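Example 3.2
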Amino acid sequence: MENRFIHLFANLLVIGLLTNCTDYKNLEYKKAIDLIKKKNFEEFGYVLDDKKENVIKIRIENTESLTSFPEELRAFQHLEEIKIKYCNLNEIPEFITEFTNLKRLIIEGNPITEIPEYITECKKLHVLDIENTDIKELPNFLKKLPLTGIQMKGSKVHGFPKILYEYDSLRALSLNELDELPADINTFNLNILYVSLKSFKYLETIESLEILDLSDSKGASLPKDFGKLKKLKDLTLRNCKNLVKLPESIGNIRRFWGLILGGCSRLTALPQSLTNSGISVLHLDSCYNLRTVPKGLRIGSLTANYTKWKSIPNGIFYSSCQTLKITDHQITNITGISNMYNLTSINLSRGKIKKIPDEIGRLKKLRLLLMEHNDIKEYPRALSNCPNLKSVRLFGNPVYDMSELNDI
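Structure, written as tokens:
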């Protein structure tokens, strides 16, 4: 009898210990964080609320060994954002319904195949990111959620799902490649759109757009009235290899945070009207055939890597650029660079430049000059006329001599 009681007590003790070990809902957030850290995820981060009392955001990325949502997350009852990207998650767990404040669920890059219906219990969910997952459809029950952003580029969801018409407040959308947008796309009042298109038809009707990414599209030209998108702040046309020109109306857009044209290998010129626009960042990477840009462009930073340019396109040296980066080129002559009198940083590395012209001494704001791996044989004393110059790097040139550079 005594042995039976001892055995029963031992079993109860084990059960109690196991229960305590898995009672994550009552675990202090600091202990839960420590437990997660011990799992040695490749990338892990979290954000606390203003009072430093609750974890409101969690981030885990690039961990192939992670196949399910960590149970420790249940300790964070005030979570507003869960971001688990490029792991090996195969499902969204039912305990996600415990996060009543959840606003953003980002599961990009996981082999998840379906969205469970219990996700509708997360009644505050505004953003759902299923990019690069194995999910094949947006189920109808999702219309119960107040979604304002749906990202599904790279998923198995193709076309323009009809359920999107159920959302009056949809503001951000990413889609897989389409032949063209629906004719009534303007009814969505989108602020953000990511999509590859075979035709750019109807784009000009979405006048609410602020961020537009058309990377890898196959269209040859943007709509003539593209300039109607006057709220647009960020335009990405990366790897639009069939694009031959930008419309003159683009100059009606007064300010670009970013104008990304990298990989638009058939572009030969930028329209004159762009001088009406302020451009914080202009990317021209791999724009092999670009020959002309309008004089007077107002640019903060210009980047053009891997261009194969043999000469600087006409007009570039007459922009008000502050940062100039053109690398992996075949340029031999940079005469005229002094016209870019606002330059603070120059990187013209990995090319065939033979000489730094004396006119560079007129660049009074210049702080950094990188011209590594060119064919420069002579060090210009005119650089001593650049009062703010802090660093000159000429490694890989015939002139390279550290003792001489140190005399600046």
